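User: Could you write out the 3D structure of this protein bound to 4'-deoxy-4'-aminopyridoxal-5'-phosphate? I've included everything you need below.
Assistant: Certainly. Input first, then the structure.
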Amino acid sequence: MIHDPLEGDEGKITLVRARGSLVWDDQGREYLDCTSQAWSNNLGANDPRVVKAAIAQMQEITHARPNFNTLPLLELTAKLRQIAPGDLNRIGYCLHGSLAVEMAIKLAFKNKPGRHNLIVLQDAYHGRSITTMAASWPHPDNPFLPIQPRFVRVPHPDPYRPRLGMDVEAESKLCLYLLEETIAKGVDGGVAAIMLEPIMGNGGHIELPLSFLKGVRDICDRHDIVLIWDEIQSCFGRTGKMFAADLYGIVPDIMTFGKGVGGGFPLAGIFASDRLQGFESGEDALTFGQFPVAMAAAVATVDAIISDGLCDKAREHGAYATQRLAEMSERRKLIGHVRGPGLFVSVELVKDRQTKEPARKAASEVYRRGAAKGVLFGESRYAGLGNLIKVKPPLDCTHEQMSHALDILDEVLGSIEADGIA
Ligand code: PMP
């Protein structure tokens, strides 16, 4: 069998219950979940309003093929239009972020007939389907290469590890210059779209400078290229605004969403500009793509994110967390860098602050010792880094929970330093 849960996977926790920021395992142990289950529970787990809406929908209709509308589909679409940035009023749905990215890519190519290239950033992560893996960083020993499309990867600025010790703004300018040069001289057959995560998530949590984000928008405008922002990880309040597009004041042409929208139910999709031509029937239809139960859950989730003021809470918790982590870094030499924005928080552990060599063993110990003390910290094993500690609980966690998670991180880092692990 593939991914057989009964084989291997030693040490994996079996979860049996979740509520808010807490989860419980089959041994009755309670954990504070700073992973929000792949940063998806922006609204805390099993929110009673979401559960009630999903149950009510289940009693009416659980499945309708995409040829039909359902009431939650209409209600959710109207709601999302109200909060959509700029003119991104056209909405498409599916159940997984990877498929939302594929939908975005398809729509971009449909709108630029005759163009042959998609440009992505070098440390990007856009999913694990055949196409989205190819749009992510080079996968080590990739067995799927023979059947994957090829995309063009360009460098992006990295404020913590700028090239040749450059200043952040100079590096941003250099990367914009190289991007434009790639469009002019680096591809055959024109560029249909440029795709990026406004805050790069799995590829090392990199906050792209505003100048770079603005510059890419400008290049897309000048070259008539579709700009896709993959907001699957940054959407629905995580950054302290509903979308990163609102945070940075930039409107892409297509924006993906996922994770936090469904309140724990699978849902993802795209927002697209009114200016783009939509799909014809048959170009993008998935049997379960408009799952009414997830839609009903999403209506309740989006309502709760707004009425509970979770964007404000993300900013408050995030400001508190980053300030405490900065203080902690004065005592804990393993902390190399503290990152945001909002509750998109992580720290990078390094062996040495000068060389910035990733402290991977120390990070593994943080996950292990944290879990033993009842706090699950988020991991990042991708892109060869593996040294990030993500502190991303649900946006509606309490101040005490946030503070407790940081106390435990401090304690665990202290014990790891005392044991000489890096
Ligand atoms: N894009 C981004 C930016 C993501 O963070 C993820 C998930 N980590 C995906 C796409 C893929 O989403 P999914 O796992 O739901 O397919």
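The chain has a mean pLDDT of 96.
User: Perfect, thank you.
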